Amino acid sequence: MTNGSEPDKKPSINPILGAIVLFALAFMAMPLFLGNQASQTIPYSAFKSQIEDGTIREVTLTQTTIVGVFGGVENDGVTQLRAVLPVQNDPELFPLLADNDVSVTAVNSGDGSIIGALFPWIIVIGFYIWFIRRMRSGMTGLPGGVGDLMSGRFMKPANPAQKITFDDVAGQDTAKREVSELVEFLRDPERFARVGAEVPHGVLLMGPPGTGKTLLARALAGEADVPFFSTTGSEFIEVFVGVGAGRVRKMFEAARKAAPAIIFIDELDSIGRTRGTGVGGGHDEREQTLNQILAELDGFSGKEAVVVLAATNRPDVLDPALLRPGRFDRHVTLNLPDKAARRAILDIHAKGLPIAKNVDLDTIAAGTPGFSGADLKNLLNEAAISAARTSAHEIQPIDIDEARDKVMMGTVRTLAIQPDERHRLAVHEAGHTAVAHFLPEADPLYKVTIIPRGQALGGTHMLPENERQTLPEPYLQGQLTTLLAGRAAERLLMTSVSSGADDDIRRATTIARSMVARWGMDNEIGPIDLRDSDDHPFLGQTIAKPRNFADATAARVDAAVQVLLKAAEAKATEILTHHKDKVLVLATTLEQEETLDANAIRKCLDPDNVTPLHDRSVPI
Q1: 206-220: buried (b, 16+ CB within 10 Å) or exposed (e) per residue?
Q2: What residues contact 501, with CB distance under 8 A and at least 6 apart?
Q3: Within the chain, what is the greatest distance between any pair of CA atoms?
Q4: Domain at 399, CATH number
Q5: What's the confidence (pLDDT) of residue 427?
Q6: The domain that contains 49 carries what CATH number?
Q7: What is the Cα 548 distance to its own chain's centre?
Q8: Rounded to 5 degrees, what are φ and ψ at 190?
């Protein structure tokens, strides 16, 4: 194999193994057709002597043989005697049989010899052919077996129900600019060839799930109006070794014939993982498929107007050979949309939906930080379902509110909460809300609720005014104070704390440790990277890494984190103590109403200076 390629041959069954299986089946089947009786061939004269002795009671005659069965007496395990009849007819045979009272059966020689001998083999060979055809077609899932397996839809461009263009892709302006350069090349490749320009044939789209990688690839095909060959990495993998490589060859050949064209491979990481880590030691099906993709990417000439797009959310596991210049040498990253991008995405998905006029899409965009394009589409769909549940004709703000809470926190849970637990929960959430209200560094409040959803028993919702790209130290300290305010309120108003602050403490500890170990916000430790884990850029997961600093330094980090957390809790306690009466009013009102919006919160915490806020249509 050169660069992972191999002769274009169909997978087949080992002929030696097939012959062994066929012989074994025939050997096992012979007794079923020839019987289980042991026989012995003897001379004709000896056969007549056995008749005269009275040991044979039944004979079967054909044109050439005579077979006798012992009359209940075996001779050394032999139950049948066989002899060849003489060419000349023996006039003494039939009288001898009649005198010794032997039962005679005559059989046509064609039925007894040729068909009787060939019938077991016919059955076994037929079963073998049926089994091979069944295995080939059954394992591939294609009615035509291997022929369709190697071609089929892999050689045919996709035919989308509706044409998708760049206008259908919102919130990814940078990625669209990167990809749109390929449109002119696909529309007029000769113009680039005249000046010797080559557009990258491999473009890798990277980003978190739901950010629009597949949509962007389809939009490129729609803008260029060229054939679009679409597949996923997992569809190349089959039981037969070599099938994936064959599929790759067939698809690239079809794309070259249809050029200008686009090939799109979704979930490239399923076949593009670093080689040498599989069970096959570098020769398994996945790695052969990857080798064939590498060979096909190298095989493009400068004049072939074929662009290969691939999408993945795991670029860290891809084989380095895929990412080198000449293959997937252009990397386009699709990030989670910011506030303006979320607004543009909502405009696209809101088309055709009966949304009420008092629904503010700007507020929805501001209140959904961290949502991907797929999340926003799901948000509007859940809102439409909520409206249909009440037989409404339009999607109202309450439907958007319910949909966002459901997407972010889960469905409302019906729990039997005891009165004392309900009171503690109201005090806890009132602590968060009061500190967020009185802290100038905190984001504006939207609402507070003690209705259980998902794993949360309640929540305080805030609405960021601006999309933050960096996090200033005062803002982070305000976050710590707000997070620990629920616990501080419990201690202040109920003289004890509960396990309800579990998630608050976890989040506050994560922020404080990042301030010390990552962002250098501790004056004594200084600007040094002391993190013991890495956050995956696309998966949102924390991956542990070996510690490269001393235990004494780790102890200093722990001490600095404790100082930050205790200072934040002390500040929260100070604010709550200063406004204790107002916090009690807020807790009592929340316990009665279960949910309070921004105006109701301000009425409890600042009754002398209540100015109705602009009616927001959705929560953060």
Answers
A1: bbbebbbbbbbbbbb
A2: 428, 484, 486, 487, 490
A3: 137
A4: 1.10.8.60
A5: 94
A6: 3.30.720.210
A7: 35
A8: -65, -35
Mean pLDDT score, 200-212: 86
Which entry of 178, 267, 285, 429 is annotated as an active-site residue? 429
pLDDT band at 113 (very low <50, low <70, confident <90, very high): low
Calculate mean pLDDT across residues 293-297.
Answer: 85
Return the structure tokens found at 287. Answer: 């790695």
Locate 575 and state its tokens: 């604010």
The verdict on residue 200 lying in a domain is: yes
Residue 507, number of CB atoms within 10 A of its CB:
14
Residue reference for tokens 């012992």: 70
Asked whether residue 375 is assigned to any structural domain, the reply reads: yes
pLDDT digits over 145-191, tens only? 444 445 545 556 766 657 788 888 888 888 888 888 888 888 877 88
459-462 sheet: strands from edge to edge: 459-462, 445-449, 595-597
Looking at the fold, whether 99 and 160 belong to one and the same domain comes out as: no
Whole-number Å distance between alpha carbons of 124 and 118: 10
Residues 240 and 281 in one domain: yes
What percentage of the chain exceeds 90 in pLDDT?
22
**In sequence order, what are the beta bridge partners of 460?**
448
User: Does residue 404 lie within any of the structural domains?
Assistant: yes
Scan for tokens 């099938």, then name that residue.
243
**What angle, 0 to 180 degrees and rounded to 10, lies between the N-to-C axes of helices 243-257 and 285-298?**
20
21 residue type, one letter: V
What's the one-letter identity of residue 136? R
Q: Which tokens sit at 463?
A: 């609405």
In percent, the amount of the chain with pLDDT more than 70 equals 79
The residue range of the domain holding 562 is 419-609
278, 160: one domain: yes
Measure the CA dihedral 121/124/128/134, to 10°.
Answer: 140
Is the peptide bond between 419 and the residue preceding it cis, with omega within 30 degrees of 0? Answer: no
CA distances from 239 to 72, 236, 303, 451 (A): 56, 10, 36, 51
**What would the two tokens of residue 415 be?**
């729990």
- CATH code for the domain in which residue 525 is found: 1.20.58.760
> Among residues 442, 565, 555, which one has the least CA distance to residue 512?
565
Mean pLDDT of the chain: 80
Assess if residue 270 is contained within a domain. yes
- Mean pLDDT throughout 302-309? 76
Are residues 266 and 187 part of one domain? yes
Q: How many domains does the chain have?
A: 4
Co-location of 183 and 286 in the same domain: yes
User: DSSP 3-state helix, strand, coil percentages of the chain (rounded to 5)?
Assistant: 50, 15, 35
- Residue 569 is a catalytic residue: no
**pLDDT bucket at 339, cuts 50 / 70 / 90:** confident
